[in-house]
UniProtKB/TrEMBL annotation:
SUPFAM superfamilies: Thiolase-like. GO terms for molecular function: 3-oxoacyl-[acyl-carrier-protein] synthase activity. Coiled coil: none annotated. Keywords: Acyltransferase, Transferase. One of its GO terms (biological process) is fatty acid biosynthetic process. Its EC number is 2.3.1.-. PANTHER family: POLYKETIDE BETA-KETOACYL SYNTHASE 2-RELATED (PTHR11712:SF322), POLYKETIDE SYNTHASE-RELATED (PTHR11712). InterPro entries: Beta-ketoacyl_synthase (IPR000794), Ketoacyl_synth_C (IPR014031), Ketoacyl_synth_N (IPR014030), PKS_Beta-ketoAc_synthase_dom (IPR020841), Thiolase-like (IPR016039). This is Act minimal PKS chain-length factor (CLF/KS beta). It comes from Nocardiopsis mwathae. Residues 2-405 form the Ketosynthase family 3 (KS3) domain.
Amino acid sequence: MTVRVAVTGIGVVAPNGLGLDDYWKAVLAIRSGVQTIDRFDASPYPVRVAGEVSDFSPTQHVPGRLIPQTDRVTRFALAAAEWALQDAGVTVRDLGDFDVGVITANGCGGFEFGQRELQKLWREGPHHVSAYQSFAWFYAVNTGQISLRHGARGAGSVVVTEQAGGLDALAAARRRLRAGDLRVAISGGLDAPLSPWGLTAQIPSGKLSNDPDPARSYLPFDAAAKGYVPGEGGAILVLEELEAARERGVPTVYGELAGYAATFDPRPVSGRPSTLPEAIRGALSDATMDLEDIDVVIADASGVPEMDAAEAAAITEVFGPRGVPVAVPKTMTGRMYAGGAPLDVVSALMSVRDGVIPAAANIADIPAYYDLDVVVERVREVEVRAALVLARGHGGFNSALVVRAI
């Protein structure tokens, strides 16, 4: 018998909402968190717009002793994990020492912390650099800090495949649960790439939008698309084997992680097509579902015209022209790297729960040649039993994950 893995807890830190309820209300209201950068002076940079988390106070959400040793991204991760565990009604220390594991994704590391300590090194010398620099910048630090904070001593790891990593981490946690290695998995992804150093590291890709207007800067699948805006935040989910969760009296079961697959694209200069269609088919096969079972696709939505075209081609190749509604909630958050895909999974689960498909912000002119049914202007009320979430990572990573109603 196949073990079914359910989502029983959700914690969200997003530019348009802290916590699940605030985030989802903002999505349904098409309220964006994309704005002119105000956490630092971005005027010297060509990119001046981002999805900022503007109302997060670390002292309200993170123990004081952890503030000096953590980057902004880890504070997000600690808060999201706390909210997810509370939502699931899980107290880690009530379980066996190795029954709970943490598997997260991160694409940027601790940019802000690292910049500050490197500036101390250059200006004041090595003795002024924090000892916490040894780990606060590292991709795996969120996994480590969540594990330490909650006493989760089971299997733990980190995935670094940019935006695809958020789905890859959830899939890795699902495998551990299905193998019986864990009873509870804390999984998801977050990033916080908004600092002078972080922005400088992203600009050379050539994929970021230079438009200074927050309402026009990130327009995936739109004729005016010119790149993406970076965003910060993400989501942490609590995953459990479905029957075990029911036996312990879990407060809420949001849905099932029903299918997953990943592929890797050939080099762009090879002339060979993207393997994203194979990832989509693989996820459907893993879920033992047919095309008509999918009620919505939540797109990766790069905003880079050639990447949008490749994703549109993959979706239409599998589902047919305008064959399935396509949602793009990240138009309200920016592209959040490792945090983007888990947040899209949250949106998928909320769509299943509430019977709505969220509308994208600002998209107005979708070229006919894309042949996509992108949901815009207003939410679409329709029964949603299953959703497909797509994510692509820099370097050729493709991931697809199916969430399904229980």
